[in-house]
Amino acid sequence: MAEKGKKSAKKKNAVNKKNPKIIEEEEALARLEAEQQQQQQQQQQQQQQQQQQQQQQQQQQQQQQQQQQQQQQQQQE
After folding, report:
1. pLDDT tens digits for the chain (77 residues)?
2. Cα–Cα distance between 43 and 65 in angstroms, integer?
3. Residue 11 and residue 3: Cα distance in Å, rounded?
4. What angle do CA 21, 24, 25 make, to 5 degrees?
5. CA–CA separation, 75 vs 77, rounded Å?
6. Which 3 state secondary structure label does DSSP give 18?
7. How far apart are CA 53 and CA 9, in angstroms?
8. 3-state DSSP of the chain
9. How far apart are CA 17 and CA 10, in angstroms?
10. What's this model's pTM, rounded to 2 decimal places?
11. What pLDDT, on the 0 to 100 scale, is given for residue 22?
């Protein structure tokens, strides 16, 4: 029983003492994933801003059309 305990302890230590290269790779992957998430968030924000700008442009166009219609009505009177 004591030997089994020693073996499992050795295995745990082996897992805890990961190859430094593997640790570096995992950290690099984590950084890449974080960067990708940031980029996606920035893209989403840009898309939202573009949509807002489009909505504003549409509102301005509608206002211009209304003004033109009012002017035409005034001219007809």
Report:
1. 556 666 666 665 555 667 888 889 999 999 999 999 999 999 999 999 999 999 999 999 999 999 999 998 888 87
2. 33
3. 12
4. 85
5. 5
6. coil
7. 62
8. CHHHHHHHHHHHHHHHCCCHHHHHHHHHHHHHHHHHHHHHHHHHHHHHHHHHHHHHHHHHHHHHHHHHHHHHHHHHC
9. 10
10. 0.55
11. 85
Question: Token digits for 76?
Answer: 């007809």
> At which residue do the structure tokens 């974080």 appear?
34
| Matching residue, tokens 């206002």 | 63
How is residue 69 written in tokens? 């219609």
Tokens (6 digits) for 17: 């003492």
